[in-house]
Amino acid sequence: MAVKNLCIYCSSPLYQLGGGNVKCSVCKKKYSPIRIEKIKTLIQLFCEGENALTASKSLNISYVSVLNYYQKFRHLSAEYCEEHYHLHRTPDSQYEEYLYIEKSKRRDKTAIFDAHNFLTFGYGNYVYTLLMPSLGMFKQQFVEDKLEEVYSKEFSKFMRTSKIIKISEHDNAITKFWHYFEQFITSFKGVSNDHFPYYLKEAEFKFNTPPSKRSKILEQLYFRPNGSGI
Question: What are the tens digits of pLDDT across the range 169-185?
């Protein structure tokens, strides 16, 4: 028997199955409408900046499951950012390099090699980020060669650059994003090097996208006909 709702993936008629599940008459996908609503709510909470632990408690979903969903949303955010940049970038785009070091490490002279180094391109009111190779690959060689002075000079240069950024009054998308990113990333209790690129793209997505449009964009990406499975 057909039900009123249409398929979340292809907008075709649905048929009711046992256990409250439904099946699409065209793409043949089977899913639980209740679970779909939970995923939509998770997307909304993600877009609003709700952390995974709070989201897991409010929806009665395991913390690990929410973490996995959130990571998927970050991957989709990165995909959207890539497409948006290639569609809307302009020939006169400007870019600047940024070094991010966790606040707890900024007094450590060797912390320059733990920095996340990325380029920030500005196009109109939007930004696009490109993560550069880690400086950590050079750390051991500097230690073995006892080049403490090089460490110190590089770290001092970073601190001067960081200070200039903090007091800068330049009103452009690049510097606005740097301030936004610093506030965004410190809301997490440490981000691993493996996951940092996707947190960076999450910040880029949220900076570029009005809050009212974020959930709809991620829902469209998540529920594509050939997209994520449930």
Answer: 455 889 999 999 999 99
